[in-house]
Amino acid sequence: MVNHYIICSITAWFTAQLIKFLITLIKHKKVDFERFVGSGGMPSAHAAFTCSLTTLVLFIEGFSSAEFAIAFCFMCVVLYDATGVRRETGKQAKVLNTMMEEWVNQGSTANFGEHLKELVGHSKTEVIIGFIYGVAIGITYYLLIVK
Fold first, then answer.
1. Is 47:32 a contact under the CB 8 Å cutoff?
2. How many CA atoms lie less than 13 Å away from 141 in the CB half-sphere?
3. What distances in angstroms separate CA 84 from CA 32, 45, 54, 87, one per listed residue?
4. Region 95-109: what's the mean pLDDT?
5. Cβ distance 71 to 79 under 8 Å?
6. Which of 44, 96, 98, 99 shows its CA 20 to 30 Å from the CA of 68?
7. HSE of 128 in the Cβ direction (CA atoms, 13 Å)?
8. Between helices 124-141 and 4-28, what is the axis angle to 10°?
9. Crossing angle for the helix pair 66-83 and 45-61, nearest 10 degrees?
10. Is 62 helix (H, G, I), strand (E, B) or coil?
11. Where are the domains of the chain?
12. For the whole model, what pTM was predicted?
């Protein structure tokens, strides 16, 4: 038995990550595998993952189903987190990294540890594009595979 929900969601996530990797390759002319597995960037793979799932559940189970309600709520939390909490975490990491670099440049011998990861969240545009992409993947998957 095939679980279409998982296959559709993973397809949306994988292809969104591939798009991020290719954008970096074209824009910066460098291979950066972090863009393939890491968070942040255009489009939001988290948004694509959850929106494709929610769209497929909508088409298969229907708007009034408990499954759709659960998927929709899950999607809303993920989208909010991507543009809210994780976005702010990235902004804070950028400020802290700048402060640590300035202290080191001023002669501090303190060990601040690793450079903090700054690209952890998404802009609203990245999430909207991920949302649209996920819905498109969900619809396409439904029409080509499920129906």
1. no
2. 28
3. 26, 16, 21, 5
4. 76
5. no
6. 44
7. 3
8. 130
9. 170
10. coil
11. 4-80+122-146, 85-120
12. 0.78
pLDDT at 120: 61
Could you tell me which residues come within 8 angstroms of residue 85 by beta carbon, excluding any fewer than 6 positions away?
Answer: 121
Helices (H), 40-147: 45-61, 66-83, 85-105, 124-141
Peptide bond into 43 cis (omega under 30): yes
Place of tokens 């998982």: 6
Q: What is the pLDDT of residue 114?
A: 74
Tens-digit pLDDT profile for residues 58-88? 999 999 999 999 999 999 999 988 877 666 6
pLDDT of residue 117: 67
